[in-house]
Amino acid sequence: MTRQLLQILICLTPLCGCVPALDSSGGPEVVWGDRGISSGKFEKPRAVAIDANDQLYIVDMTARIQVFDRDGTFLRAWQIPEYYRGRPSGLSFNNAGDLLIADTHYNRMLVYTSDGRKLDEQTIGGVEGHGPGEFGFVTDAVQDSQGNYYIGEYGQFDRIQKFTPDGQYLFEWGGHGSEPGQFVRPQNIAIDEQDHIWVADACNHRIQVFDATGDKAELIKIWGKSGEQPGELSYPYDLVLDGQGHVYVIEFGNHRLQKFTLEGESLGVWGGNGREPGQLFCPWALALDSQGRVHVIDSNNHRVQRVKL
Predict the structure, then answer these.
(1) Which UniProt keyword terms apply here (predicted)?
(2) How many H helices and E strands in the chain?
(3) pLDDT of 222-238, one tens digit each?
């Protein structure tokens, strides 16, 4: 077994560990969801995006996109048509309000309208490989203020590719490894007001930040290390920025949510391994609504928890 394959297998294994919880004014505000395949239920939900109306779009292991209001009321759903090779693992919205789907095992980014209509002409990728515009396992996609797309992938390549608004390849950066600027499973991408690219470098247990607004990516910030203490990370799978100087990171390995300053100083943690309200079991993702409340995708508990930190 190669060292690279071993790292990937370790990253996919559920892990343990927790630290004391951050005060959340009495615990989660709302806990909703249950295991199942009917409307409003989940089978290991793994990604979430929230729109301008605070509606949550959630994908699970059935490859359904389900839409809920911020209190957990089911609104509508649709099915991704191809999923026998694997399920999507990343969601975000573009500037037009359409949903970007990281169609992980089909090596592409899909685009859907908010009511579930697929925009075939906006698909990027679909060919497995390491050349420009080809992909391994796609993890996430975001769009910057100029309309450019950034798409992350892991597997043999562990990189981020940048594309024009109409899907033309521009450049890439990364590569498999643990040196600054390299990745081992870049699981999630977020973008701030300066169009800086924030990457949850999951199997390196760190966050990296890049300026990719020019013709190449420049590393401008890197923080985090493996561990269970506040300020340390274990398989960060998702992150969001609140626009007020805070970063929220979900940790698959530590079963928790952690709040940081932009420079990586921990402001506290919430969660811990378990099945009770306020506990998490292998969480994959999170979203922040217009009222500053965090919606945590509590994957192996098949539910969503909303908390105000």
Answers:
(1) Repeat
(2) 1, 24
(3) 999 999 999 999 999 99
